[in-house]
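FORM 7B: Structural annotation worksheet

SECTION A. Query
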Amino acid sequence: MRGTGVTAGRHGAAGSAIAKAAAAVAVVGYDGSLPGPVVRRVLESSELVVGAARHLDGIGVPEHVRRILLGEDNRLAYARLTAHLGDPQAGPAVMVTAGDPGFFGVLRDLRESGFEVVGYPAPGPVAATLGRLGLPWDDAVVVCVTDDRSLLRAANTARAHPKVAIVAAPEFPPNRVAAALRGAQRAFIVAQHLGEPDERIESLSPAEAATRVVWGAADAILVLDEERLSPDSPHDPRWGSGWVSAWAGPSAGWAVPDNAFVARGPQVLPAEIRALILARLAPRLGAMVWEVAAGAGALAVECARLGAAVIAVERDPDACERISLNAVMHGVDVEVVSGPAPAALATLPRPDAVFVGTERADIVRACATTGARTVVTAVTALDRLPAIRQALRIGDRRVDGVQLQASRLAPRPGDALRLAPAAPVFVLWGELG
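SECTION B. Predicted structure
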């Protein structure tokens, strides 16, 4: 179609947005700097501006424009904005917010409330904070905390990844976020009042941040593993790869070859068994997984490669060293707890899933009482199945299992092949409803 400036087909959504722009709420991001010419024109042509008092004062709202201040309860402000837009004689309306309103910002809320929106973003707090520190942010994992569940997922993500940015609702001040990171060896960086005269960026340990009772509002919180972010540190190519932002999953699949781990004797389950166990554990970004009686920590490493926060519990000090070595070799972070189970489990963060690498029913039972969504174990002795199945039933779990026996191709003389069967293994799991 000629002369309209907007084509049909796949550009229809863009054309619709342009057509509705005149009746939309203009959402302006403020980062403490003076607005550019486009934003100045938007403000000068508006009849109503909505925002926090410090943002409206800082951005320079013209005197002739009517203001609605946002506070602790924004429902009244939204109602007045709705009434304004419902008046056919009313002029344009603008909302001013911090940083980028499309990045964990107000754009989603406005759209879900039925408003048409046009955004004029400024650099958001995550980009600004990392920029102040001279760090790129295309390799950061960014999470938002709005409730207790998302706080736990954010903490697990920060335990698993070397560069995590947290944008938290006001009811989750830095000390509350830091408390969820108990025991994590990380730098905890709090940015406040970015772009304003009293801008402050402070680096502490999670323990120090958790014990400080009084905190002002945080624009962003960074949780950094400075050792893994060091240029001299070996790291997984998922981070800093330069072609995709944040965490992109394992670079070489999962259920990696058995010889990819340093182990003593039969400490590593065959890849075919690990593949099923990983499917039952479902490790992912934001989840916490334990491997108890971890041996060489193969399952722990595999879960960490898939994005989960992982704790490996092992009583043998030599095996603990091998777990740490395997984690370094695969470029992941696994927290190793040296001590006997079940006693060593008492102070650990609550897991989402557990793999038990022993056939002791008392340890399986202890893991089943943690509230984990799934508990998985591997058994080779047929006579131990009844006790372990009973232990997995704790908490009214649904118990299921399968026997696996893989036969791998093995070479024979003359370029021939044979099947080399492995010993059968029973994989059992108990899942909450």
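SECTION C. Observations
Residues 288 and 349 are 8 Å apart (CA to CA). The first helix runs from residue 12 to 20.

SECTION D. Sign-off
Analyst initials: ____
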